[in-house]
Amino acid sequence: MAQMRQEMIEIVRFDQVGLRYPGRQVLQNLSFSLRIGSFHFLTGVSGAGKTSLLKLIYRGIIATQGSVKVFGKDVSRIKTSTLPIFRQRIGLVLQECSLLSHLNIVDNVALALTITGARLNMARGQAIELLQWAGLGDYLKSKPTTLSDGQKQRVAIARAVITRPLILLADEPTGHLDHDAATRLVHLFQELNRIGTTILFATHSRTLVADFPYPELHLSHGQLITNSSHQSGSRSYA
Ligand SMILES: Nc1ncnc2c1ncn2[C@@H]1O[C@H](COP(=O)(O)OP(=O)(O)OP(=O)(O)O)[C@@H](O)[C@H]1O
Ligand SMILES: [Mg+2]
Known about the structure:
The protein is built from eight helices and ten strands. The protein is α/β, with parallel strands linked by helices and about 240 residues long. The protein has two domains: about 1-90 and about 165-238, P-loop containing nucleotide triphosphate hydrolases (Rossmann fold, 3-Layer(aba) Sandwich); about 100-165, no CATH class. The strands form two sheets. A six-stranded mixed beta sheet has the order 6-7-8-3-9-10, with helices on both faces. It has a four-stranded antiparallel beta sheet with strand order 2-1-4-5. A hairpin with a 2-residue loop joins strand 4 (about 65-70) and strand 5. The protein is globular, with a radius of gyration of 18 Å. About 35% of the residues are buried.
């Protein structure tokens, strides 16, 4: 019973996780958990394994040691046929936002919902609301190529959250942005976090980490070093 309750509050749990690519051990002995509603930064130098760790969560790759549980389930046991349903509950924001250049931003965002079976009109309505929330109300008819990098990232956030994911994984979304644009982007993530979305935000930027009161999962030499100096009572590590 106690274990069930624990699983309900932990959205992600790594137990002794290792990851080996051919010829290279990238991650080892990672044990940590993310509680529902938490916000963490994921840091580490280039090549430390941040993207790999995020991939382990959405089962882009499978751990070579240990267990990864997401929403209480061992991800290695998810059948390929049910992977799309599993991934609908995970929002992804990547550094290269890969928006479709021939569609305006409303349709770029709406598409993420229509592929789950929603009707186009309804999806467009929600996309417009989200884009307005993201400060892009004046750009609804614009194609992605006419937007700045920060604006594109805001479209990518709207696209990632239109399916109402439980957790949002961001892989260096601020990599190309100046400090002010990066800060504005983190504010959007903060708003999502306030309404309950769990956030894991990979970044190189020490300034961002210093500017916001969230705990840091730091990868170094394949291991996890947790800096909980900012940690509030609602967050935990194993
Ligand atoms: N598909 C792969 N096959 C083999 N090695 C890989 C593969 N993907 C990543 N690696 C290696 O794993 C290590 C971690 O890569 P990863 O992309 O997770 O790092 P990162 O922390 O996200 O780096 P960056 O900050 O540059 O994005 C690197 O040494 C990389 O070369
Ligand atoms: Mg990376």
